[in-house]
Amino acid sequence: MAKIPHRLYLTEDQMPKQWYNLRADMKEQPDPLIHPGTLAPLPEDALYPIFCEKLAHQEVDGKTRYFDVPEQVQDMYKMYRPSPLCRAYNLEKALDTPAKIYYKFEGNNTSGSHKLNSAIAQAYYAKEQGLKGLTTETGAGQWGTALSEACSYYGLDLKVYMVKVSYEQKPYRKAVMQTFGASVTPSPSDTTEAGRAILAHDPLTTGSLGCAISEAVEAATTTEGYRYVLGSVLNQVLLHQSIIGLESKQAMEILGEYPDIVIGCAGGGSNLGGLIAPFMQDKLLGKADPRILAVEPASCPSFTRGRYAYDFCDTGHVTPLARMYTLGNGFIPASNHAGGLRYHGMSPILSKLYHDGYMEATAVKQTDVFDAAVQFAKLETILPAPESSHAIRAAIDEALKCKESGEAKTILFGLTGTGYFDMAAYEAYLAGTMQNHVPSDEELQGGFDTLPPQPAE
Ligand SMILES: *Cc1c(COP(=O)(O)O)cnc(C)c1O
Fold this sequence. Notes:
globular, 4-stranded parallel β-sheet
């Protein structure tokens, strides 16, 4: 058989024309979003003031197995997809492992991450509904960048609330968003009630994703012709990101391969949920039994040390409650945590699958993550995002276990993006000043104390 290529690209014709909705094959559904006051499940139309109608529908629809990718979304996908499935030959050799290591690389677009896959879909549906603009939050900046590209393409206004510490530390991210025509406000700001309340409570706060979400939701619901969009966590986002897994599975089939282990980093769960979707389908239907591994930072350990509980998706308590693994909406990771994946909660779909034993999770320290990032960059010539490097760390560890046991396992991991805007973190790592922070049980308790009252079982 011919040698497997370093990079396999599907042809445009082979690209998936439908997204796959993992919920359709789950034995038990994830719990629905509920109203924080009445604790009653929210019907689809209760979401219309926040989300566009088609997206609200995708959010609540647990039955439809496949959704057509609209033709205009396919057209924009073709400007940067299909993304390559890569074989990490150099890394395998350096590790001296019998394992075969594959990765799906999603960094080949200006946002530098997989986030564009959902940004395009969300902007498209907003335009189709005749909206004027969108609001959102961004932390590290990849989501804001992706959405500004998509809004510019479809001709929509965009207001981005950017976590203040990132706004100050990553001025070029802001400039990229502005280049695409977005307006960018550091959060918390005095432009919303939620922002003013957070500032009154703590004037020196450097912000968090949770508080930027509060501001963006408020701005959407109080501005005519605007809706709010989110780049992770939600069911609709995992649906759009299934393109990653569908392309990966198809490319592996062409190579005659199937993964024994699928690994992804987990912040809010969107790349992981997308990558694993068709493999988890096989598992749910009893067709195959790959291991599925989520990798999170030890300083923000939602899966491995969080509670499975109803929680607000934001700090300012303007969103519905979602049942998920969470550290509590008031949890803010230590300020020396540079590796991304800072969100307090986790996708309800992945939370349910984890709770029911279909997947595993592990937490890794950031210096170990950057060890892996630098090793990978030198061998594979891609400078990985710190977020993605969590998955690299775990893939290397699994490959080293194969070396011990002599098993030639096939490993697939998601390389979600590039790290060019994270060079301050790389510098700290190279200078030896990067620190690890693993929160104590007492620190975590502070976050759990912010969980809202739970509905009776
Ligand atoms: C946003 C982001 C992540 C984490 O988000 P998920 O929703 O958990 O996928 C991971 N990698 C990169 C490069 C990102 O931009």
